[in-house]
Specification:
- Helix content is about 20%, strand content about 10%.
- With about 110 residues, it is an alpha+beta fold.
- The protein has a two-stranded antiparallel sheet with strand order 1-4. Strands 2-3 form a two-stranded antiparallel sheet.
- A hairpin with a 4-residue loop joins β2 and β3.
- The longest helix has 11 residues.
- The N and C termini lie far apart (about 25 Å).
């Protein structure tokens, strides 16, 4: 099992989870984070820290595409190990449906 970031992170990008990760397995895109599934140690400390409830265990049904998205982008986006401010539209976009199709960006973030 591993934890993965799902669609509600898109256009929010809260980084509370990054602060508590003991193995620094978060990677930053322009408007979301992903978890490197091979680096995650399945400790689960990040899940309750996410204000958007976007972090899920990969054992939940229907998350195969999200596991692959996390795997793909954690290989090319820079590592992020410190907390940053969320995106300006985070509160407005939190819980919005269809965020992958509307807002997802393949562009890398800044990282550390």
């Amino acid at each position: 099992m591993t934890y993965i970031v799902t669609d509600n992170c898109i256009a929010c990008k809260y980084t509370d989870c990054v602060e508590v990760c003991p193995v620094d397995c978060f990677y930053e895109g322009e408007n979301m984070l992903v978890i490197h599934p091979d680096e995650c140690i399945d400790c689960g400390v990040c899940e309750p820290e996410c204000p958007a409830e976007a972090i899920k265990p990969d054992t939940e049904s229907g998350l195969d595409n999200w596991l692959e998205l996390n795997r793909k982008y954690s290989a090319v986006w820079p590592n992020l190990t410190e907390r940053r401010d969320e995106l300006p539209e985070a509160k407005e976009r939190d819980g919005e449906e269809g965020k992958l199709e509307k807002y997802f960006s393949e562009t890398a973030g800044e990282g550390d």
